[in-house]
Amino acid sequence: MNNNIFMSLLLMPFLLACNKDDDNNFTIGSAAPTVKQEVTYEVIITEDITYGEGLTHESLNSSNSSVMPLFMDSYVPENNLQNRPVLMLIHGGGFTGGTKQQEPIVDMANYFAARGFVVFSIDYRLRGDKGTVPQEWIAASSNIAPQNLGQFFAVYPAHRDAKAALRWILANAENYHINTDYITVGGGSAGATTSIGIGISDLDDYKDELSINEDRTLSSTNLSQTYEVKTILDFWGSDNSIEILELIYGYQRFDQNIPAIFIAHGTNDTTVPFSNADDLKALYELNNAEFIYYPLQGKGHGAWSATVGEKSLSDLSFDFIVDIQNLNVE
Length: 330
Known about the structure:
alpha/beta; disordered N terminus; two-stranded antiparallel ribbon; 8-stranded mixed beta sheet; 9 helices; 29% helix
């Protein structure tokens, strides 16, 4: 395994009758949700919703472990609509730090919720939590530089948790009047990498590599729930977690059916190099999949305040989701 592929990991600080489909997903007919162009709704914020549990070990996969709750915050528009799109946001921090209440994430959550989206911002296990890692990953780690190992091992539980969060949202869609045909995931840096990972990987990836015997907390994560991500918001991330799957398990996940992606990346990013955006764009072009690409000229890492044609990244993301998902806009 080429260790260079993982170098950036070290540095990366969803009004008709409702029913349930065959996968037990809550759906609302076939009509697209309606969202607002401008700020319209008050936003009801609920913090620290438990979406599952995860193990945290004293050392790598040690028998000495404890169970930690996994939390998310919800941002719900105060309206009576029964047909809402959903957005799940994932914070950055290089799989080492960060929280669901990072200011740019909170700002984006409020932006979309005030326009009619139901938004969730999630926490997940970080490097210091030492989540359970599959044996295949441990075997592959012999090719990883020692200083990168902590970052490398943090990728699996982070993605496992993010997928668990999305499954929880789908399992509880009826409570939030979410139309499960309209799912967006997004984030910045490591959060973007995780969004790409859960959006493009198969449902079994970052889930079935471990058994209940190896990780008893899996039983808390709505394992039978399915989903299909429609759009991904990538702010200065990479496809590293998809590359890891290919390198460890010998298959790749990019094809013409992958979710449409919004790519924004600073051309002067020295944390997650801009070349990651170019590489991702090339993969989408190769597979004839939908994307939009914004090289943020002269910007570095975490360029949340960047504008393109006087539009903010939230404005551009909103336009992208509306266009790809054919949402109704008022």
